[in-house]
Amino acid sequence: MQDKIVIRGAREHNLKNISLELPRNKMIVFTGLSGSGKSSLAFDTIFAEGQRRYIESLSAYARQFLGGMSKPDVDEIEGLSPAISIDQKAHSANPRSTVATITEIYDYLRVLFARVGEPYCPACGTKIEKMTTDEINQRILENIRITNTTNVRKKNGKEIIILAPVVRGRKGEYYQMLYDTYNSGFLEVRVNGKMHSLKERIILSKNNTHTIEVVVDKIPGTEKEFAGEKAFFERLATAVETAVDLSNGLCTVIYPDAAEQIFSTEYACPNDGYSFPEIEPRLFSFNSPYGYCSFCTGLGTKELFSAIGGSASGGSEEACPKCEGKRLNENALSVKIDNKNIWELTSLTIGYAIDFFIGLFDVFPPKKLEIANAALHEINNRLSFLFDVGLHYITLNRRAGTLSGGEAQRIRLASQVGQQLVGALYVLDEPTIGLHQKDNDRLVSTLRELCDKGNTIIVVEHDEDTIRASDWVVDIGPGAGIHGGDVVYSGTLENLIGREVTRKKNFDPYERKDFGCKTYGNPAKSLTGKYVRKEEQVPIPKTRRMVDRATPKIKIKGACENNLKNITVEIPLRRFVCLTGVSGSGKSTLMHKILYREVANRLNHVKKKVGSHTEILNTEYIDKIIKIDQSAIGRTPRSNPATYTQTWGHIRELFALTPEARIRGYKTGRFSFNVSARSAGSGQGGRCENCEGRGVLEIEMHFLPSVEILCDVCKGNRFNNETLQVYYDGKNIAQVLAMTIEEAEDFFKDIPLINDKLKMLNSVGLDYLTLGQSAKTLSGGEAQRIKLSKELAKKNTTKTLYLLDEPTTGLHYDDVKKLIGVLQDLVSKGNTIMVIEHNLDVIKCADWIIDLGPEGGDKGGELVAWGTPEEVALKSTTSFTGKYLRKYLNL
Q1: Does pLDDT of 559 surpass 90?
Q2: Under a CB-based contact definition with an 8 Å cutoff, are residues 830 and 53 in contact?
């Protein structure tokens, strides 16, 4: 087998015809400035080609279900394996999708409960045991006596009907089965609740589910005969025996008062006769009518739209009044393993779930253990991985839509690792996002284990711990956008940072070689190398803004939402504040669910549900609160940085004011790619109508994926020829859209309304984006910084509270340095910035730190430390953030 991956002539996006060699079965880190071309090489070239080749190897029939892929712009790639991508793209916001379902843990749980679960009566809570046919007969007679004593009016001619449920909720026509039943001497069946004679043909839809019960006997008689005649009892016993034989253990009885009861030779309550349905995996599925709550159909919420809204935005949800959010019906919830039903088990955090399942090996008798062993192994395997990557605080029933990008990526990684593949190529996009340094080591160890099993790992990453744990480093650059796309360095870690490499204690100190791969570039010129070697650093502020008794502070009292433990937190205003702590410690709950919603309600006069707390004081010191998250800036291909920052409107006005446009009578609408000629009126719409202003055409390829091709009319320019004949300062409207933000800032230097906005985009490290770049191609970190630049460009009130959630996502060391400068300038104008952050370069530059913890989940939610970075670092015995911060402050 070839021991290296060889790439020749990669030109995808901004890659400049690069070639390089990568070692197989090793851990490789791709790094470089934001926009330098890392993802273009890792995902759009290597992964795309690996996946395309695998799909192309399948039959045309299989490809119509899987879809295909277009070939990336690369001459040749050798030594590729089937590729698995685990990226930061939006994860499922489906309200039915949970951590347990994504990782397939729930599938194994359903099998486990179906095979070794113990049913309890939903009515009285009694453990249900198997019932013999004699016990069924006795129960029927007792029920008849009760009916007689209550003098219930007889509704079916004083007869007892015994039925055998031979089909329960399954699809099919069942013609042959019904024919055989008739030939066996039975005359009637009840189909979906209606009686039918078997002498007549019964036509059933094969696509619908049906319940078919064979009428075994209709036993007539008086009340006296029902109560105790020997002949009646013998006939009843025979009928019950026959029904049980026909239906594999089930018997339905219709009493004279038309009441019905199902008995089972498997499970029935000895107290009240409650019989359990067939215990099988579908009973525990909230996507199956046999398992889900009939009121909410398994959503767990009162209404569908509230579930979707809640999962996507974290908004309030009203639990289903019947199942109280448990999603399942009473039968499913009445089956238990070690006194816990399946909902109670999935409500456990991953940390507690591991302890529970390990404990089952001591609880189960040998026979049960033999049955459950395979399912338990798969469950424990996945739980252990989730625990190892720092997700011990997450519950198994947590909805997928409420997970952060980093959490979702690690959960998807857990489901892939559970497959135990060998010889695969894993491509990961910043798996350390949202992860505290405390948990980094465990994640890196897990990735190394994947390598040791014979897989190749390519990680797009800026984290120093991950870089230092790799075998091979590829630094793309030297700049971003048009200034990037070259290989600055590709080689071993040792060559990048020098021979004195401090390895983690978990890794073998084997002799390092070049792995038979060619080294490219010069490590001395690598900007990443300079930061890792500490030749370049993000500087520690020479002075910090003082926080004392006179400093105005917003005070949050009695915060106890989710895992917060009735804490009181003070946030100093006009300061740069970092909210820190391990994953799951309560940071997002405090900032988003309590602080943001309460203050936004007061300032905007709305009534969104606020997380539980006693009160928030001193909000009169701010007049605006702005939350800047990582959601997309637009949902259509036409949304772009120029439209979002409202620069596009001013650019269109400039073109409308040119002499050529005025002579032709063109208004601003002429220069919009959203306005069609028909809607704008004659001569007003200037976009290309062939592609409707998109610049590309999407061709439907049926079983192959849709292909985007350049519009053959406008050649990707988006506008018609007449519009493109209008020039401003030597550029037409399409050429302006194709400019990078860096070029556009210089081009519009004399137009303050445009230049100010572009300068802000440039200052947050987005100089490499083009003005017309589709919002769909932007990462979460890029979208967040575009939003930040839009806010920075506004006229400032100097009394604004900005809330940012991990703004360093996707940022290189050098970009982090730029971002810190922008944030510090914003605070210097009198604003307050509160940032949830794990990046220690940002944390060390803060004026004030609020550290939650000490752990995640139920072991978190406490105020561990607060103060300046130096003060928190000195509390390293109690604060994990302080422990890792010490070396960054040279203490």
Answers
A1: yes
A2: no
